[in-house]
Design a protein that fits this description.
Blueprint (H helix, E strand, L loop, with lengths): L2 H18 L11 H8 L1 E6 L8 E3 L4 E3 L1 H12 L3 E6 L5 H6 L6 E4 L3 H4 L2 E3 L4 E10 L17 E5 L3 H9 L4 E5 L2 H9 L5 E5 H10 L4 E4 L6 E9 L5 H16 L1 H10 L16
Length: 278
């Protein structure tokens, strides 16, 4: 065998060995569910000033509220612990897309959002309400607010803003970074009212009874609120969260988590108007 034939034989042998050698498995998680189980961490978005969903104790920086209880329940079933990232209603969708969080609570499934993220089945169905400042006539219909002289405060990027702009396009709509700022605008007289989900409005007025009054304009507007997740081909995480949402909503557990958060300001089920769904 000449030198050239020898080199060819060695090369062929090397290629054969490479072809039959075991390929090292890629151990990186391939889906959100795999990542959570591997890391033991469920990352969620939390939003300050959104009682009873989220409450941040400014003295201790500890979080509580209905959504924290829900997150702990979900994490427990996945063998994980909860890790929190402070966000806003407007930014939590971006945080999902950027892979900063694995779960966003109380996300309304709009067509626009469905193009960029995915959703579980609803955890609740909410009614929209209005908090009016003292002395401002309680609106009986949304048309009563659809006037150029009416100033409506909303938190930017929320469904509150969507409803205000959809049903009161003629009104002077004032956008604020947070709902706390929007409520402050009402309390100081800068705005005439604030559009909010009933679950939030009831808590706010119980905590601040001098703020104003609760109105439920007709027609009564309702919208499901869901868990938001990243869109991915693996459906196991979505299917798990949908089963979790259906199970706890049907048993009344989700309502109990909300009522538990309400109790921190002395609210009970009897304080909830009959027209309000949740």
């Amino acid at each position: 065998m000449n030198r050239r034939d020898a080199l060819t034989t060695v090369a062929l042998a090397g290629a054969a060995m490479a072809a039959t050698a075991p390929v090292k498995a890629d151990t990186a998680p391939t889906s959100t569910l795999d990542r959570i189980k591997k890391s033991g961490v469920l990352r969620i978005a939390v939003i300050a000033g959104q009682d009873p969903y989220f409450h941040k104790d400014l003295a201790t920086n500890q979080w509580s509220g209905a959504c924290i209880d829900m997150a702990n329940d979900i994490a427990g079933k996945l063998g994980a612990k909860v890790e929190m990232l402070e966000s806003t209603w407007g930014n939590q969708i971006l945080d999902l897309q950027a892979d900063k969080v694995d779960l966003a609570f109380a996300v309304n499934p709009t067509p626009e959002r469905s193009l960029v993220i995915d959703f579980s089945t609803p955890i609740l169905v909410h009614s929209f309400t209005v908090i009016t400042k003292k002395g401002f006539a309680k609106p009986q219909t949304w048309t009563d607010l659809n006037k150029a002289e009416v100033k409506i405060a909303v938190d930017i990027g929320s469904t509150h803003e969507t409803i205000a702009r959809r049903y009161c396009p003629k009104a002077d709509i004032l956008g604020f970074k947070t709902r706390d700022e929007a409520i402050l605008a009402v309390s100081t007289g800068r705005a005439d009212c604030n559009v909010s989900l009933a679950v939030l409005s009831i808590f706010t007025l119980k905590k601040n009874p001098t703020l104003g009054e609760l109105a439920i304009p007709r027609p009564i507007l309702t919208l499901p609120t869901n868990l938001g997740i990243r869109a991915e081909a693996d459906r196991r995480y979505k299917d798990f969260l949908s089963a979790w949402a259906d199970y706890n909503r049907s048993l009344g557990q989700t309502r109990e988590w909300l009522l538990k958060a309400y109790q921190t300001v002395g609210l009970s089920a009897d304080d909830i108007p009959g027209e309000v769904q949740f």
